[in-house]
Design brief:
With about 325 residues, the chain is an alpha/beta fold. It contains 14 helices and twelve strands. The two termini are about 40 Å apart. Bound molecules: guanosine-5'-monophosphate and manganese (II) ion. Manganese (II) ion binds next to loops.
C-alpha cells in the first residue's frame, strides 16, 4: 500500500466505523488468527467490528481469543448478510479473490463498504480499494503485525492480540520451518512473546489436541501413500468411506500432505480428499525448492496459493482425479528432476 492510500485508510479509521473482517472459506490458523487479531485491535479503538467467516473451522482453533464472537455465515446467514450490508469498511484477510469465500462472495460484491485486502498469496485480484499484498510474507498474521507497526501502535498489542498473531504465523510457517520464515519473522515472533504470547501453550492447543480417530485416519492415509519415483512425487488419497470410517471432522486431515513431502527425495506431494457432499475432490499440493505448485494448481485444478503450498479441486471422481494427476506429471519432468 503506498503512503497516500495508507494515510487515507488511517483517516477512515480516525472515527468509529462499522467494520467487517472476512477470512477465506475453511479458515486456517493464519486466516482466523489474522482476523481475530485485527478484530480485537479495532474493537479497542471503539469501532463496531465483527468477524464474518464463510463457514466453520476446526476445533483446534476454537480456543483462540475472540473466537466465540465469530459469525459463521453458513450457520447465521441473516446476521452475516446484515453485517456485510451495513459495513462501512470490509477487511478481507488471507485471500485475494472473492471466489475464495464461497457463498459469501455475492454479498461482498453487493456491499457498499470500502474494501481492504491484506494478503500474501500470488496474483492478487483488484476488488479492493486498499491493497496490501506481499507474497514474500510468511503469513497474513505477520502482515497484520506490520500494519499495526506502520500505524505506530505496537504498544497497544495486548496478550490476546499477540496470541492470535503468534498462532497465525506459527501455523502458516509450519512452526517456523518453511522458507517463508525470515529473520524478520523471528523478530516479530519475539516481540509477540514480549507482548504476552505463550509459545509452548499455543503450540499445544493447536498440535497436541488430536483425537484418536484423527490419528487412526493418519494411519490410513500413510498406508495409502503412493510414489511416482520417476517424478520425485508422492501422493495420498482418502475416500469419503475412509473418512467416514474414522468419524472425520473438519481439520482432521490438516498437515497429512506434509508426510508425503517428508519422504526422502520427494520434491512434490499431493493429497486428494473426497468430499461427497460438495461433489468435489479437494486437493492440497506441496513442494520443495523451485517447483511451483501455485502454477500447477491454477493450470490443472482450478486453484492457487503459494509457490510451495497450494490447493485446488477436481469435479472428476477420486480415481479419475488421481489418474489425471499422474498423467500430467511427465509434462513437468524437467522441473521435478
Ligand atoms: P491447503 O492445502 O492447506 O488447503 O492450502 C494451501 C494454500 O493454498 C493456502 O495458502 C490456501 O489459501 C491455498 N489454497 C487452497 N485451496 C485453494 C483453492 O481452491 N484455490 C486457491 N486459489 N487457493 C487455494
Ligand atoms: Mn496465510
Amino acid at each position: 500500500m503506498n503512503s497516500t492510500d495508507f494515510e487515507k485508510l488511517q483517516q477512515l479509521l480516525q472515527h468509529p466505523k462499522k467494520i467487517v473482517v472476512v477470512p477465506h472459506k475453511n479458515p486456517d490458523g493464519d486466516a482466523l488468527g489474522a482476523s481475530l487479531a485485527l478484530y480485537l485491535f479495532l474493537k479497542t479503538d471503539g469501532h463496531e467490528v465483527s468477524v464474518v467467516s464463510p463457514n466453520d473451522y476446526p476445533d483446534f482453533l476454537k480456543w483462540m481469543p475472540g473466537e466465540k464472537e465469530v459469525v459463521k455465515f453458513d450457520q447465521e446467514k441473516k446476521r452475516g448478510e446484515e453485517l456485510v450490508k451495513g459495513a462501512e469498511l470490509i477487511f478481507t484477510l488471507d485471500f485475494n479473490h472473492l471466489s475464495r469465500i464461497g457463498e459469501l462472495e455475492k454479498y461482498l460484491e453487493a456491499a457498499t463498504a470500502d474494501f481492504v485486502m491484506i494478503d500474501h498469496h500470488q496474483q492478487p485480484g483488484d476488488y479492493a480499494d486498499f491493497i496490501e499484498s506481499d507474497v514474500e510474507m510468511s503469513s497474513t498474521a505477520q502482515m497484520i503485525y506490520h500494519f499495526i507497526e506502520r500505524m505506530d501502535r505496537l504498544e497497544d498489542l495486548t496478550p490476546k492480540i499477540a496470541t492470535c498473531l503468534y498462532t497465525g504465523i506459527m501455523t502458516d510457517t509450519g512452526s517456523f520451518r518453511f522458507a517463508s520464515t525470515t529473520s524478520k519473522t523471528h523478530r516479530v515472533i519475539a516481540d509477540l512473546m514480549d507482548h504476552g504470547a505463550k509459545n509452548a501453550a499455543i503450540h499445544q492447543q493447536v498440535y497436541d489436541t488430536n483425537s484418536l480417530d484423527k490419528l487412526h485416519l493418519l494411519g490410513r492415509a500413510l498406508q495409502n501413500l503412493k510414489v511416482e519415483k520417476e517424478f520425485n512425487t508422492a501422493y495420498i488419497s482418502l475416500s469419503q468411506d475412509e473418512l467416514d470410517a474414522h468419524n472425520f471432522k473438519k481439520g482432521d486431515t490438516e498437515g497429512f500432505v506434509n508426510y508425503a513431502l517428508s519422504l526422502k527425495g520427494t520434491v512434490f506431494a499431493a493429497i486428494f480428499i473426497e468430499n461427497k457432499q460438495e461433489k468435489i475432490i479437494k486437493i492440497s499440493l506441496r513442494s520443495k525448492g523451485n517447483f511451483d505448485v501455485n502454477e500447477f494448481a491454477r493450470t490443472h485444478f482450478n486453484g492457487g496459493g503459494h509457490k510451495n503450498a497450494a490447493g485446488g479441486k477436481s469435479e472428476k471422481n477420486l480415481e479419475e482425479t488421481v489418474k489425471n494427476f499422474i498423467a500430467i506429471l511427465p509434462r513437468y519432468k524437467t522441473e521435478l528432476t
